[in-house]
From TrEMBL:
HAMAP family: Sirtuin_ClassIII (MF_01121). Belongs to the sirtuin family. Class III subfamily. It comes from Mycobacterium terramassiliense. It catalyses: N(6)-succinyl-L-lysyl-[protein] + NAD(+) + H2O = 2''-O-succinyl-ADP-D-ribose + nicotinamide + L-lysyl-[protein]; N(6)-acetyl-L-lysyl-[protein] + NAD(+) + H2O = 2''-O-acetyl-ADP-D-ribose + nicotinamide + L-lysyl-[protein]. Its EC number is 2.3.1.286. NCBIfam families: PRK00481.1-3 (NF001753). This is NAD-dependent protein deacylase. Residues 1-235 form the Deacetylase sirtuin-type domain. One of its GO terms (molecular function) is NAD+ binding. It is found in: Cytoplasm. InterPro entries: DHS-like_NAD/FAD-binding_dom, NAD-dep_sirtuin_deacylases, Sirtuin, Sirtuin_cat_small_dom_sf, Sirtuin_class_III, Ssirtuin_cat_dom. The lineage of its organism: Bacteria, Bacillati, Actinomycetota, Actinomycetes, Mycobacteriales. Zn(2+) binds at C112, C115, C138, C140. NAD(+) binds at Q86, N87, V88, D89, G177, T178, S179, N203, P204, E205, A221.
Amino acid sequence: MRVTVLSGAGISAESGVPTFRDDKNGLWARFDPYELSSTQGWHKNPERVWGWYLWRHYLVADVEPNAGHRAIAAWQDHAEVTVVTQNVDDLHERAGSTAVHHLHGSLFEFRCDRCDMDYTGPLPRMAEPALEVEPPVCHCGGLIRPDIVWFGEALPDEPWQRAVEATQSADVMVVVGTSAIVYPAAGLPDLALSRGTIVVEVNPEPTPLTRSATISIREGASQALPELLQRLPALLK
Ligand code: BJW
Ligand code: ZN
């Protein structure tokens, strides 16, 4: 059986990573995440955007995959599993998933916003979260930015192609922890459904996908995923 997983921020919530739209308590709660994740926001205040991403970089490095990530990795013993993730953390890989495609980049990769060169130099330390941090400067004079896909930017070609292939070849698509509103990723479940593929949504809250999904399981990832593969035949009856 070929299982393609499309994951979003909700799968990492139980590891202690705030979701993209639900971080009401953090230092950045009063800022608009759409602004912090846009090229306009970066040009307007690179220090604030850098501070936000650096804080998330260190936060993610400090947390562990949860039972949801581990369940998906364990499915590899029973199925051909491809993970397509919108997340910029590395928790799927750390849980043991081997085929992971990141559609929106990574908190652990950086590049120059002028010459595009990868940056592997030192990062500012962050003992305490700081609202604004000076980004490193490239030898060309450009600012170093996180290698993240912001609104209005194109998704990287290769992961996107792999995501489309994995969607087209799936027997089952499991969509977990995403609000299913950010395109083009949100179009993948529709592509699967249009091919007659079973789409299982796992999310404690309804989303725009809920009505069209084959099954919608209104539970958190760490509760639903460990049993999901065994439950599938019964759920699909
Ligand atoms: C749990 C849980 C638990 C809680 N268990 N679940 C109008 C129509 C269509 C498209 C557009 C439009 N206007 C603009 C666009 C395009 C735009 C877009 O889609 N905008 C929408 C907002 C409308 N898309 C883009 O701009 C993309 N690029 C593009 O289209 O390029 C075109 C182009 C082509 C050629 C050349 C140039 C351009 C790029 C999108 C990039 C998204 N980037 C971000 C930020 C970077 C990463 C980061 O900093 O984290 O990616 S935005 C943000 O949203 C982030 C996420 O990956 C992404 C998705 O969010 P996600 O993962 O769904 O998280 P949340 O917080 O929204 O939801 C969490 C869910 O978990 C909730 O449902 C909870 O209920 C649930 N949950 N606990 C399971 N325990
Ligand atoms: Zn440069």
